[in-house]
Amino acid sequence: MIIDCAVYRDGTREDTGQHSDDLAAALAGLGEDDFLWVGMNNPTGDEMNRIGTVLGLHPLAIEDALEAHQRPKIERYKDHLIMSMRMVSYSDDDITTNEVNLFLGANYLLTVRHGGPSLVEGRRRAERRHDALSHGPTAALYSVVDTIVDRYEQVARELETDVEEIETSVFSAEPTSDSTRIYRLKREALEFRRAVVPLKEPVVRFSETAEPPEARPYFRDIADHLGRAAEAIDTIDHLLDNALTAHLAQLSVQQNSDMRKLAAGATIFAIPTAIAGIYGMNFEHMPELSWPVGYPLCLALMGSACVYTYRRFKKSGWL
Amino acid sequence: MIIDCAVYRDGTREDTGQHSDDLAAALAGLGEDDFLWVGMNNPTGDEMNRIGTVLGLHPLAIEDALEAHQRPKIERYKDHLIMSMRMVSYSDDDITTNEVNLFLGANYLLTVRHGGPSLVEGRRRAERRHDALSHGPTAALYSVVDTIVDRYEQVARELETDVEEIETSVFSAEPTSDSTRIYRLKREALEFRRAVVPLKEPVVRFSETAEPPEARPYFRDIADHLGRAAEAIDTIDHLLDNALTAHLAQLSVQQNSDMRKLAAGATIFAIPTAIAGIYGMNFEHMPELSWPVGYPLCLALMGSACVYTYRRFKKSGWL
Amino acid sequence: MIIDCAVYRDGTREDTGQHSDDLAAALAGLGEDDFLWVGMNNPTGDEMNRIGTVLGLHPLAIEDALEAHQRPKIERYKDHLIMSMRMVSYSDDDITTNEVNLFLGANYLLTVRHGGPSLVEGRRRAERRHDALSHGPTAALYSVVDTIVDRYEQVARELETDVEEIETSVFSAEPTSDSTRIYRLKREALEFRRAVVPLKEPVVRFSETAEPPEARPYFRDIADHLGRAAEAIDTIDHLLDNALTAHLAQLSVQQNSDMRKLAAGATIFAIPTAIAGIYGMNFEHMPELSWPVGYPLCLALMGSACVYTYRRFKKSGWL
Amino acid sequence: MIIDCAVYRDGTREDTGQHSDDLAAALAGLGEDDFLWVGMNNPTGDEMNRIGTVLGLHPLAIEDALEAHQRPKIERYKDHLIMSMRMVSYSDDDITTNEVNLFLGANYLLTVRHGGPSLVEGRRRAERRHDALSHGPTAALYSVVDTIVDRYEQVARELETDVEEIETSVFSAEPTSDSTRIYRLKREALEFRRAVVPLKEPVVRFSETAEPPEARPYFRDIADHLGRAAEAIDTIDHLLDNALTAHLAQLSVQQNSDMRKLAAGATIFAIPTAIAGIYGMNFEHMPELSWPVGYPLCLALMGSACVYTYRRFKKSGWL
Amino acid sequence: MIIDCAVYRDGTREDTGQHSDDLAAALAGLGEDDFLWVGMNNPTGDEMNRIGTVLGLHPLAIEDALEAHQRPKIERYKDHLIMSMRMVSYSDDDITTNEVNLFLGANYLLTVRHGGPSLVEGRRRAERRHDALSHGPTAALYSVVDTIVDRYEQVARELETDVEEIETSVFSAEPTSDSTRIYRLKREALEFRRAVVPLKEPVVRFSETAEPPEARPYFRDIADHLGRAAEAIDTIDHLLDNALTAHLAQLSVQQNSDMRKLAAGATIFAIPTAIAGIYGMNFEHMPELSWPVGYPLCLALMGSACVYTYRRFKKSGWL
């Protein structure tokens, strides 16, 4: 579905009809440096084909825009290029990605997204930069891409916060079951990486040949932001790996401490049990049995043995 | 065995005889942009030699087509190239690969497979694209390769589903023996990777020099699909690694919890046993023994000690 | 805030006013090889814009200098370059990084830091090398960068000391909980690496084209120091990884030894308990019970069984 | 020791004397495309020097041929090249490597091996290809190298069989001590890799410049076989890594199950022991003691408690 | 301190005075292909500055020679180069490295070491090769470097021996605490690697441009030896990693076996204890108690229960 459609003359927006005839007419009427900006969401095959005919898109590029699981890339065709990206959003340890395909021609920009958050923020950013916009659609492309990449860095920061939560949990005193959450975050980081990393190299190459040349530092800047996001993901991934190993070590320490408690407990009870066993024997000649103080003495012996053993274990850190 | 054989004139199929004399005659009678398409399955050495002589194949290329464990590659000889691929199918945690060798000459395409699913789907796809087919055998090669590579992505998706099953099992409450299945899937992912990854680089290079130039974006698209499949395999591999480590962590957590139960159980029983031991002693002067309420009191003491200990352990999470 | 500002004529400092008009005048009055050196700390957007206008900085470069989480890099614009670095300080297992942006133009050096230790040390080093300073701002840039990079090596040495502490703790006899500290240090090493490693490649490239050519070996030397620091971080990281695995092994050894103690203890107590149980049975015909030496003999038997078992376990290393 | 020596004229063998004078004479009498083939085994320094003088070998090349632990490589000198390889054989989890040095000049091939299996198979293969052999010594070199590399693939297949044995053992029900064998195989795989991998790159480069050009596809084919062997070793290595981790997981599962059995066993015995303890107490007023059915009832109680507990544990999988 | 100093004319040594004036005179008096060889040990800053002035060394090169923790490298200045290496010695699981800096000019070689073994062996090797030495100082450099690199291979072999000791210990029956030694060796291997690996690339590059060209194969040979040493270190590192994991697996196996012994022991004792408990009960009507054979029968029952259980556990491998 076409959700927005306008012609930019000297950087100023003029709304236009959304029918393909209107678009063809609009295209025909463009002066130098003017351009057409069309925004689509969840286009059907028909819609894509119609707009593809108007703009003269390559059949494979149209196919790419319809497929939902494109790999992030920049593909150049004879007179246009397609930039496939993923928008990323994150909530509750869950990363959602939505594909966006951006078609850049000499005098048009077509943005095609499959669900996900609106790109209107990118359009607004572009429209604030009148001057740049008056030099053609590349500045508009920059604004959209910049908006999406900014979001990458924000999501990376949110992931970092979650990693910190996990660290706190892993190194708490109790045996926790953090492996589930660590695994989950690693999974999300993997998906995030697949959205970010494949894009960096093509953006660098694009930044070297983008037209007009004034736009190049801007795309270099985007490549830089992508590099930063990729680095943050790497760090997150490493930290999660380390957290998992540390988690294993913590569990081992915990188990050791539990085993020592078990051993200490068994020993403490074993001594009075052994003494009781001895005085429960039925020998006829057991002088202690007839002592009046035999029983209290025996209890005292048991008690002190327990207390003594307990203290020893306490002191040596086993209890 | 030759299983299919036809001449394509202006993109339209004409069946032809399968004897090598027929093939030589067919080749001789081809006009510009016409081509011969021969499909073989499990060829014997004799058959390969005969067809090799007709088409003028290099002896090493013929040898490659007969050997079953070829590495995926594109090898260029003076006037033809050989593309070795593996068809992949997957069921019950088991990946099966079958080798296919595709010989592309100026006016012929020879497909040689060793068992495995039929390539007829690829042929049908090609025949639907009359126009492309009328420019020579490259379009036919594209259709076959595209069909095979599509299958890679499907298998990758099936593997991903199995990984999700494993995740559910690993993070379930019970101590499971998932390592066997994780190992098995890792093994299959390795085999899958060996079918996919070595092909990417040569296809990229081929896409830069393929003739006619109109075919190039199509092979670039295949390289892209291969890249996506390779990336999916990487992700699967990483997830399985992580799942195995998480599995170890889960086992450790489980063991900790079992050890605590053991310790708690031992302690609960130790107390009444110790009390019984005490009142089983044979001292003459044990006043409690002659109290009428001695026995019920003692039982009550034992009972409350058990209940108290049980509750303590319950509260602290040891039971 | 501008915290220092001077003109260097023939390598000699002359203080100048800090207002942007003063700076513009100072710039205008510079002879060949003279240059202006401005130092800022925590600049506001306004301040950066003002100085950017005076020096003719690119808008993106100004933006970079204001953002706090820049990736270390060297970015070239038409008539100046920006070098983004991080100063590193370390105390109590905690690495703090502060960003510094260095703008090098033909006749100025602008240093912008965000908090952190003062760069005055670098300025002093530069002023000691009159001769080099008289050839333009590159020598001043070298001194500042050299000071920062020296600090990297010092921090690496401090980290190495901490790793040695951890090693001592890991291989001590007691089960320690070193994983927390190992994790923490790995985290810091990661942050450290992010400050150091991305800078090496750009500095190498800069060292090949720096003007004047006499400055090149000096920047090559800095690249070398960066390489050394990066190598030290790699070593630290590897050692920490190994220490963590060794820690796990030590815990396993410890647990084994504890389990053996538990088993040995249980066995030692089990024997007298079993004997006591036997003579506590109520059979009418148990001749030992009426032996006068029955009881002492029994005690002796229990005692020697305990001693014997204890010695056996001691000898086999279980206790 | 020279173990074989012959001149090949037009691809046909003519035996010749083995004395260095004979060799010098034979060399002098060679026509274009004729060549001398000398095979040595365990040469002494003297022998190598003598033959080196006759053939004009570089002193360093002679030294290399004498040293036993050469790294696989192709080294070019002014008018000859040396190819250092390792022959590999495998039995009983043990890989043995023997060094072979092949000297290729314009009109001679010198093969020097240090023990290990005979190269006669390679010679026979070469002699079968009369036609190729009539174009000079490169075809002879190809045959020898091809024979050695074929052996790599065979050894790789044998290793794969052993890995499968290990897998069966690791995933069997009993706790096995597979780590020893896994370690051993990893060690052998490492040694194997050192024989195979360093050779690939030089062979690829050699295949691009080999003379006569007709030989090039053959060496490309060898590079391909090396690539396959290297890939197989990688797979083996990965599988062994995974098997070791899976082994650890299996041990953990086993230990968990043992601990549960221990806990269950302790609980089953603890209940009758506690009951016996209670009725072993000496209270005067214990009505059950004088009941005629007291004892059988008590035994029944004990028995049913045991059976009940046993069944509970059985059902929950602890026993 | 200058420890040796000589002029080589036509490859023959002539001692010369060690004062800097002597050196300057000696330098001035050199014919073509003659050169000055100066050896220093632990030079002070003054000494280095003096000799640097005589030989015309770059200030940064002098600084490098004084700093003790240089990274191995080859640095080219306008008319000389500096090669920084580390000598390596190994004893008692401990690798010691000493830095050597070699300055090669057109007509001099200056070797500067910081402690460590003497380089006299390299000098002697050089002096044996009169012919090479008569072509300038490069041959002398070769001899010194060759001597140092030979030592790398020897140390690698010693490390390999130690790894074999560890393997024997890890796979012995007893639970050993090998992790300490494995860690230690890994640490040393890391240090060793830092001495060897960074040198390889620069030596390869040097071998391609060394003068005179006859020297090139010799430096290529050194690069080859470095490659071999680096490969050996890699192997050692991998083996140690694997040994550590195998060690963990062995500990797990050991712990499993101990736990089974504990469980078996507990069960063996639990049965007679339960029986004794039963006949220690005070029921009035326990017919067995008054049987004359009651007691011996009971003992026999206990004994056979113990023997039976013991045999069962023995058979199933738990004991």
TrEMBL record, chains A, B, C, D, E:
A Pfam family the protein falls into: CorA
InterPro entries: CorA_cytoplasmic_dom, CorA_TM1_TM2, Mg/Co-transport_prot_CorA, MgTranspt_CorA/ZnTranspt_ZntB
Lyase recorded as keyword: no
Keyword Nucleus belongs to the record: no
Annotated keywords: Cell membrane, Ion transport, Magnesium, Membrane, Transmembrane, Transmembrane helix, Transport
Residue ranges crossing the lipid bilayer per the database entry: 262-281, 293-310
SUPFAM superfamilies: CorA soluble domain-like (SSF143865), Magnesium transport protein CorA, transmembrane region (SSF144083)
Coiled-coil residues: none
The protein's role, per its UniProt record: Mediates influx of magnesium ions.
NCBIfam families tied to this protein: corA (TIGR00383)
Family named by the database record: Belongs to the CorA metal ion transporter (MIT) (TC 1.A.35) family.
Protein name (database record): Magnesium transport protein CorA
The gene coding this protein: corA
